[in-house]
Amino acid sequence: MSRAFVFPGQGAQTIGMGKALAEAYPAAKAVFDEVDAALGEKLSALIWEGDIAELTLTANAQPALMATSIATLRALETEGFGLADAAFVAGHSLGEYSALCAAGSLSLSDTARLLRIRGAAMQSAVPVGVGAMAALLGLDFAQATEVATAAAEGEVCQAANDNDPGQVVVSGHKAAVERAVVLAKEKGAKRAVMLPVSAPFHCALMQPAADRMAEALAAVEIKAPSVPVVQNVLAHAETDPEAIRDNLVRQVTGSVRWRESVEWMAGQGVTEFWEIGAGKALSGMIRRIAKDSVQKAVGTPEDIAAL
Question: Which of 38, 66, 105, 166 could bond 100 through an S-S bridge, CB–CB 3.0 to 4.6 Å?
């Protein structure tokens, strides 16, 4: 049985995530301590006891979710489940940074600082209210791309997240995305809903954030990962450090090709996907993509005990 470890993206955050792991596993607590030190603040206090609105701010949610994922992995390693058991690692958007950290390509401290920069840059790239995102349910990626192209009308509207065979997220100027919602329903979408996000991620409007990340990534060491990383913009594995660096910059404005990434891993013989960290969103997507695969969501001591 071939296994992949996958790491969640933004939206999975909850107050209290990772706290039980940190209490049960010193190796997990050490992750939160190192992230706090790297950022120069008690992010762990916000994660465990703070306000969900503050945690959901992009600049907080991104390093917080990564810290929870890596803490979960360290707890798993304590119990004998490590990356030696994985054929590939992958992550959804910010989760790709968690995957790279897990595979030793980025240090934990660098990953935390990069995600703080990334979150702030993505938030500030577009004034609040200018951009938007919407989920189109019941259309495939080709249909959603047609809808986005037709809705653009000279503005930006792109298929941003190809999540699974029936869920595509579009991103761009608010008016264009609203037009896409109407067009999607006319095209037969089961549902088309605006998403409660603070910025239009993974579209051309994010170019200022991509420029900022190019600067930030140029200043950190990226090593060859111990396990091949399936990158969002490629939908296949990469191990070359400089290619990884370039693809992380491209990821800011590019589509998250999650459906294709899972299909590619399944095509390479992966039959078991472990979602490491907060939530179960990726497991649900994978169930709809690789129907014959086994999914495990691991984020608590109870989840680990059940393995």
Answer: 105
| Residue found by looking up tokens 């095209």 in the block | 187
Confidence of residue 155 (pLDDT cuts 50, 70, 90): very high
pLDDT at 1 over 80: no
- Set 171, 202, 255, 293: catalytic member: 202
| 104-141 per-position pLDDT tens digit | 999 999 999 999 999 999 999 999 899 999 999 999 99
Q: Contact at 8 Å (CB) between 204 and 156?
A: yes
Neighbours of 129 (CB within 10 A): 8
| Alpha carbons 152 and 143: distance in angstroms, whole number | 14
Could you confirm whether 92 is annotated as catalytic?
no
Give tens-digit pLDDT for 164-176: 999 999 999 999 9
pLDDT score of 45 more than 80:
yes
Out of 44, 69, 93, 98, which one is annotated catalytic? 93
Q: What is the share, in percent, of the chain residues with pLDDT greater than 90?
A: 98
Q: Give the strand pairing for 88-91 and 229-231.
A: parallel
Asked whether 301 and 278 are in contact (CB, 8 A), the reply is: no
Query: What residue has token string 């955050």?
Result: 13
Verify whether residue 202 is a known catalytic residue.
yes
